[in-house]
Amino acid sequence: MACATGSQRGFAVVMLASVASVAHAQVVFSSNFDTSLASGIAPGVAQLTPVQGFAGLGSAGRTFGGSFLRSPTGNTVTIQLTNLPPHQAIDIRFLFAAIDSLDGTGSFPEGDFLRVTADGQQIFRESFANATQTQDQTYVAPPGGQLARRIDLGFSGPGSFYTDSAYDMGVDGRFQNIAHTASTLTISFLIEGPGIQDLGDESWAMDELTISLVGGDVCDSIDFNRNDVFPEDQDIIDFFSVLAGGLCPYAPPVGQVCDIDFNNNDVFPEDADVIDFFTVLAGGDC
Predict the structure, then answer these.
(1) Its pTM surpasses 0.90
(2) Could you tell me the pLDDT band of residue 267, with boundaries at 50, 70 and 90?
(3) What value does the mean pLDDT of the chain take?
(4) For domain 27-214, which CATH number applies: 2.60.120, 1.10.10, 3.30.360, 3.30.300?
(5) In whole angstroms, what is the distance from residue 99 CA to residue 21 CA?
(6) Torsion-angle region of residue 235: left (phi > 0), alpha (psi -120 to 50) or beta?
């Protein structure tokens, strides 16, 4: 095995074009919803819709534009990811459009709560109110989070109860550093509560959705082919096969390539990945 290690290390650094000429990224899902729904999204009855007056709201590099994923209240939008590399936590970033007469928390009609869960665990639940200034909205955006508040941005407006609001949820700490280590992830978005009404009365949308892994400064599992059998000779065979430009033995996350950055230092392919792979395989530290 030592001879195989040495012979393969010798050409590790010249395989860049065969594998990928990009640095290892912790982003495992990203969509601006401008053309089509990415793999992994179960939208329910939500649809891609032009952003209308929301266009341009946001910060540099992260603004509403083109189309977003618009949903009636009472409908769940789900993101499912599999084969995630080792990590300690996740970050979720998205722009949130509160559209038309969402009723917040107050007297009837009332009860429009955005609820977000990760693997079934609630990470966020707050009410949003657009219809009147007297309605109670529990959500208070952190600095930089509120992009627009109770103004006409299109859809069922102008006037009456049909105003809109916009938020950058990526700056809210509740969507950052969420503890998570599993190789699969399910995130759901839903506006629920007793105030649910039809699309012509109220709705919500998301844009610029990004899901990232945190804590990637640990070595990957030695189960390189992710078949839940390790240690085994096949992991070594598959590792060097991919290094040499062969096919990935598993389905990578959306938008990613087969991960040969074993030590997660954002440099690959390199000799250190091969050395660290065999060090961990032999029981050593990453």
Answers:
(1) no
(2) confident
(3) 83
(4) 2.60.120
(5) 41
(6) alpha
